[in-house]
Amino acid sequence: MLLRRCSDASAPYPCALGLPPDRLGALVETVFPEAAAGWTPGRCFSRHVHRLAEAEAEDHPACLVSIDLAAPEILRLKREEEDFLGLLLRNRSTDLPIAAVFAAIIARACVENDHLWRSLGLAGRNALADLLRRHFHPLASANTRKLRWKRFFYERLHAEGRPTDRPTVCDACSHHSDCYGDIIPTRPHGMPK
After folding, report:
1. Torsion angle, alpha carbons of 87, 140, 14, 187, to 10
2. What pLDDT was estimated at residue 61?
3. How far apart are CA 2 and CA 49, in angstroms?
4. What is the pTM of this model?
5. Of 44, 48, 43, 38, nearest in space to 5 by CA
6. Domain ranges (residues) in the chain
7. Burial bucket for residue 184 (CB in 10 Å: 0-12, 13-18, 19+)
C-alpha cells in the first residue's frame, strides 16, 4: 500500500496516505528499516524504494493530476474521512499501533472515487477482506451479506446515527451501480435501508 499510494507532501488531497510525515516515518522505520535509510518523510516513498532497487519508478497518475477542489468539498471529504476513521478505530482487533495506521490509510482511501481495494493498491477484494479481518475483525465479521466495503461502512455509519441526508462519496462515484446495483433509493442520496 505504501508503494501504491504516494506519500509526497505536495500530492493532492485524495492521493495522500493520510498520515502526518512523522507518523509515516515511524511506520517505515519500524516495519521497513532498510527502506527507511536515506528516505525523508514528506518525499515520495515509492520513488525512494524504486531508486533503492535501481528500478524505474512507476508514475503515480493520480498524484500528477492537479485537483482543484473548492474549500467546502475539501471539508466534506475531511468529514467523511473522520467518519471512516472513527468507525475503523472503534472496531480494531488490537491496540497495536499498526491498526491505527491502517485505519488512517484506509479512511483516506475511502474518500476516493474508486473501489477501496483498488485505491489501496491491493490485488482484489479478498486481499482487502483479509486485511480488515486481521486488523478490524469486529467490523469485517459483521459484513455477513458480503457487501462492497464502502457501502458496508456507510450502512454501519448510518446504523450508528450518521445523518442520512448528508451526501456520501459513493453518490457521485462512477462505480455506484457496481456496488449498489438496481436498488431503489429509499433514503436521500441513494443510501439503502
Report:
1. -70
2. 46
3. 10
4. 0.73
5. 44
6. 13-64, 71-190
7. exposed
